[in-house]
Design goal:
Layout lengths: L5 H19 L7 E2 L2 E5 H20 L21 H22 L14 H23 L7 H20 L14 E6 L6 E7 L2 E6 L6 E5 L1 H8 L11 E4 L1 H10 L4
Parallel strand pairs: 3-6
Antiparallel strand pairs: 1-2, 3-4, 4-5, 6-7
Helix pairs in contact: 1-3, 1-4, 2-3, 2-4, 4-5, 5-6
Length: 258
């Protein structure tokens, strides 16, 4: 699947930020986030707001190199008032989307990834917010849904990130798993939402495919996406793992950054 329209990513940044704000509105902001145990809900919200502002500043200034985080305006909400935090989150998302829409997807700007464009940042911030809204929803025990095209694109963007990190020598992800081994992701509720990750001596490749693999992860697309992003345990009763579960565990452990 190719990248989705720029405006859709922009809409998603706003919509997902609103959903995150709703999830934490009446929650204990000092509660630990189970999927990010070093963070409280407040930490999670501040992380998202800072990520938005950093990306927005890169795009707004048409940066040609990385922008130091200390040079990003309004990068910390003032005080501990939940209402201030809520307004700060909404303002950051709105200003970032304003910069992204003004720039358009093809505007050249610095990025850490394989594509130096405002479009890269629109997609990255959309998926950053999709995944962290899941963290907030899981912590606050609220509902969570993602449109199929966005859930699928979240999986594919993460595969592209992992492949980029390994190719750039930033982190060895595939490891010594053995040539010919593979992982199949199979969404049971969305036709064609299937991926095959194949390992070789020098790394891995991936493609859309329905083929037998060393291990298969099956379930609703959103749940497959959450497992793949380490937001849902692979032994959850919402998904099914068939075959060599240790290979899937190995991938989930290695394909993580930060």
């Amino acid at each position: 699947m190719s990248a989705l329209p720029h405006d859709l990513y922009c809409d998603e940044i706003i919509g997902r930020t609103d959903a995150l704000r709703a999830a934490i509105k009446d929650a204990d902001l000092d509660a630990t986030v189970p999927t990010c145990p070093d963070w409280t809900l407040r930490d999670l919200a501040v992380h998202v707001g800072r990520a938005h502002r950093w990306a927005g500043e890169i795009v707004r200034t048409r940066a040609t190199e990385a922008v130091p985080h200390e040079r990003v305006p309004d990068s910390t909400p003032e005080g501990d008032d939940p209402a201030v935090l809520d307004a700060w989150l909404a303002d950051g998302a709105a200003k970032t989307v304003e910069a992204l829409r003004a720039a358009g997807p093809d505007q050249e700007v610095w990025s850490w990834g394989w594509e130096r464009s405002a479009g890269f940042w629109a997609r990255r911030m959309a998926h950053e917010t999709i995944v962290h809204q899941a963290d907030a929803a899981l912590t606050a025990k609220t509902g969570y849904e993602v449109a199929p095209e966005l859930a699928a694109d979240t999986i594919e963007e993460w595969l592209e990130i992992v492949a980029f990190m390994q190719a750039a020598g930033i982190k060895e992800v595939a490891g010594p798993v053995g040539t010919g081994r593979s992982i199949h992701l199979h969404a049971t509720d969305v036709p064609g939402a299937e991926w095959l990750i194949e390992f070789a001596e020098d790394g891995f490749t991936w493609r859309r495919a329905h083929e037998k693999a060393t291990v298969a992860l099956r379930g609703p697309l959103t749940d497959v996406m959450l497992v793949f992003n380490r937001r849902l345990a692979p032994d959850s009763d919402r998904v099914e793992v068939l075959g060599d579960a240790e290979l899937l565990d190995f991938w989930l452990e290695r394909a993580a950054f930060g």
